[in-house]
């Protein structure tokens, strides 16, 4: 018989949030694959549990090379426990590659559910949670980050992101530029820890706050695009609407803002369409 792959959710902050079954799995697994073996040791000490199985590292740098070894152990009948530094494996953490390989070999895969930064931040944000999408980390390069944000500019569902504290101000500024400075959002910092903080406001306001420096683990929740303006409006039509307003006496800046509001689009998108038309001689 083949073994079982167990994906174990671990506390995102307060170790007391660990479910009892996590302790059982840590004690009984034949093999534990940990994103950081040092953090695993601190976790087991805090939970007062002594693993009896072999412990190996399983992180981004060795994930591809170690997966076949873990699959081999599963095929030999071992119970393999996968733990990452915080939260659920595979969710912006190592795990997907191993799960896919195990499924391909018809190995049973199960999970120990645990705390989730995504769901905790959503619940605390004060924003709609009936429909949402998780976007993980945005690209580090500014151009790629803006491009990714433009892809979701009209997304109606609430958006959830992870971000590093030293990039938070740039990310929020980019969000304000693409999604609109007034788009509601919440920055959730150090969830379940001693200095937990949830900062709510418009993206522009939050960007100004983050410019002063922010520390800790960060989850950002952003309101989806408003229902108004869900119809598709192409660039040519946006330019036409701006010109109509300009001909009526409005300044270009005011015309762009008005057209963006009518279409439910970020002002930057309308501005870019106008500039592109001008450069093309249209």
TrEMBL record:
Reaction(s) catalysed by this chain's protein: cytidine(1402) in 16S rRNA + S-adenosyl-L-methionine = 2'-O-methylcytidine(1402) in 16S rRNA + S-adenosyl-L-homocysteine + H(+)
Main location: cytoplasm
This enzyme's EC code(s): 2.1.1.198
Compartments where found: Cytoplasm
GO MF entries: rRNA (cytosine-2'-O-)-methyltransferase activity
Domain Tetrapyrrole methylase: 4-207
Any one GO cellular component localisation term in the record: cytoplasm
Keyword match S-adenosyl-L-methionine: yes
Family: Belongs to the methyltransferase superfamily. RsmI family.
Stated name of the protein: Ribosomal RNA small subunit methyltransferase I
Gene that this sequence comes from: rsmI
